Amino acid sequence: MTNITSINIEKEDDFGFGTQIRKSPYFDATVRWGAKGFSVYNHTYIPRDFGDPEQNFWNLVNEAILCDVAGERQVEITGPDAAKFMQSLTPRDLSEMAVGQCKYILITNAEGGILNDPILLRLAENHFWISLADSDILLWAQGVAVNSGLEVSIREPDVSPLQLQGPNSGEVMKKLFGESIMDLRYYWLREIDLDGIPLIVSRTGWSSELGYELYLRDGTQGDELWEKIMAAGAPFGLKPGHTSTIRRIEGGMLSYHADADIDTNPYELGMDRLVNPDMEAEFIGKAALQRIRKNGVSRKQVGLRIDMAPLKRPNTRYWPLSKDGESVGKVTSAVYSPRLEQNIALAMVATEHATIGTELEIPTAAGPVKAVVVEKPFFDPKKQIAISA
């Protein structure tokens, strides 16, 4: 007999949310711990405001933060042909991906456009999770499967990740799981149980810091898991938080729909390492990516330093970029970095203006603002912080 959870009807409209957008298993906990604003990610509310975003950044880089990222929904692919089907979705060669390993991949369409840039987890020989950025890959995968002739099952499982990120995250993990958790390598996963709470734990995260993701496999235990982690982290300065725009731009990390979309291809982003158009296996977009590689691209993603007063908040729309009065591209993500003490940005510009040191302009109502093309990532370019344990 299924257990029935009681609800407090008087509190049902506290935030006035409807049922068509989901609340995560950690929603009530994040509200208790101070979440004041939410965005929507994969049809799920995700906390985006725990107070001062600069303080959230310092909490992340100096101590540790716990983030509700249950909006990173999973697409589960199982069945005898799961591995072959999974390879058909991505231009990254998966032939040497081991059970227990994670990989950052791209999912492309027939034109080579990027549909998603998820983390792929291999739980068993024919058992994969695609941990999604914000787009409907469940529907795409199910549609591709219809006429694939492959024997696969594709569904969204009851799986909701948390991100525990920052230099003290390892200490929190040791408190929760013991010393053996430190053997977990970067971009590998482990099935684990925490006092009866079923989890997959991986050494991954959207922060460019040392960090872990904890994939809860039973949504009814979300509140309990959140409180256990916060209690274990108290001696190490753990704070509730949200994914940091400052830190992810410092690290040159993409935000899908902002820095990449269906009309962006991997070569424009300098992600050649994630594409193997010469491999024997077939994948969607193979011919297009071979053609793009041969012909080259007309635009490239670059890093920018923007010379103006510190930005008060990240951009909420694309900013035009010009050179000698001509439009040459757009700023996709911009923010002020208090650590670097400068405004930094990711931008897409015409290839001929993508050289380091090129000076561009952002037209504003107060006059043009200078933007200089610089190296990216802006901080820890080889990701030594995230890799080291």
TrEMBL record:
Residues 27-277 form the GCVT N-terminal domain. Keywords: Aminotransferase, Methyltransferase, Transferase. It comes from the Bacteria. This is Aminomethyltransferase. It comes from Halomonas fontilapidosi. One of its GO terms (molecular function) is methyltransferase activity. Substrate binds at residue 213. Residues 299-380 form the Aminomethyltransferase C-terminal domain. Its EC number is 2.1.2.10.
